[in-house]
Amino acid sequence: MGLTIISGGVGGVGKSFTAAGLGEYLIGKGIPPVIIEADVHQNVASYFSSTPEVKVHKADLSVADGWIYFLNILGSEQSPEIIVSMPASDNLDDEERSGLIATVAADMDRPTSIIWMLSSSSEGTAELGRVQRVFGGSRVKCVAALNAFWADPRAFPNWTGTKTRDAFLKSGGFEMVIPKLNKVAVDATFKHHPKVRFSANGESGLAYGERIECRRWLTKFALAFDEIGPKIGIGEKVAVNA
Looking at the domain 2-229, which fold is it? Predict the structure, then answer.
């Protein structure tokens, strides 16, 4: 079971894309997740709009009472797996907001993790460092995710081989790679209007080549989360405390 918050501080780093992939991974394991869509673009909500086994909530964290509504959703949901797709500039390094999330993790006895999508900018890496520090000592685990769609994982200049990375891992952080999905397949699925699921069959209109590429990618995506999941509490069928 788990509460997985997918963030990155800025837009265009693959937060929604990864949230959709994680949803597919959990469905494949027989654990359909609850989605909390907090991104104004609503990409994850749109992706699962025709998937009845996936329940979607929407929360606007930019308004004054948005975080209270967000906490109400978390308090009412008993699903083993909850995925939160955060907006850009979510300020998770803010001590007040991080404190709320740490409180939820403790109160609900639910493994909680933040998957932070790294970007090529130094600011995104610096913000991850701050996020790790504010959650230090809590039950919330931080994961640095390198999205291979944008670049070879070895080619993130502000992360790979840096003292920042070494300090992050030494302080209890984790690292993973989100495998690359060919752009043609991305355009035919996640960026298509309406969106088409990565797991779609031929009846969806998804061409054979794109289906094979998506199948390959989902397999690699599953392997990545099979490895990281037990470390951060994703994908285990365990009852949640009321």
Answer: Rossmann fold (3.40.50)
